[in-house]
Amino acid sequence: MAASSSPKVKVITSECFLIRDALTMKEQVELSAYIHDRDRTPQNEPRAMVPAPRTLVLGDDGASPTVKYRRGDASVVTTMVDQGVACLKRENLGLTGITNDIAEYTSLSMATIRYEAPNGRFPPHVDHCKDSAVFLVSLGRSANFMVRGREETEVRRFQLQSGDALVFDASTEAGLLHGVESIDVA
User: Fold this and answer.
1) Which residues are CB-neighbours of 28 under 8 A, at least 6 positions away?
2) In sequence order, what DSSP letters do the residues of 145-184 get, joined into one string?
3) Which of 85, 96, 102, 108 has fewest C-beta within 10 Å?
């Protein structure tokens, strides 16, 4: 995940961190190719008048949107997560609501959502994944994000640029409201 300009971590709110330049261009291409090779999403479906974000089918069964990994598995996905964790640890940051040491994760799963530009949106929501962290990465285009921490009134808006990562506690207890407001065209 080390980009030509080294990754920089920004605290968005408690239990939510933005890692700028998390992936190099080469790593973005590798991850994109990995997703493309695994994608089993039906291609001949009619196009909606207002296209919604689409969760790709990546599972080996041809139906599941997720691929599961164990810590230590050799894959572009575990490498990305491990490097993101290392960035947080260098800054003495972590997801204390989940674990004392995020580097000690035992398993992870990957899902991919494809958005159309410029109208791709994902309404603000709170995840409900107990003891889980989310590592979001933008590939190709920038996503305009909103985040609001639990019991906060201020909404933070920022651009998740291609190659950036957003890491956050996905538990109900963290109560992190987040959403994609739009996708940049250029």
Assistant:
1) 139, 140, 162, 163
2) EEEE-TT--PPEEEEE-TT-EEEEE-STTT--EEEEEEE-
3) 96
pLDDT in tens, 19-37: 999 999 999 999 999 999 9
For position 113, which CATH number holds?
A: 2.60.120.590
Strands (E), the chain: 8-13, 16-20, 54-55, 67-70, 107-110, 113-114, 122-126, 133-137, 143-148, 156-160, 165-169, 177-183
Joined tokens for residue 66:
């997720």
3-class SS of residue 80: helix
Within 8 A by CB and 6+ apart from 69, the residues are 75, 77, 78, 107, 108, 109, 110
User: How many domains are there within the chain?
Assistant: 1
Residue 2 lies in a domain: no
pTM higher than the cut 0.90: no
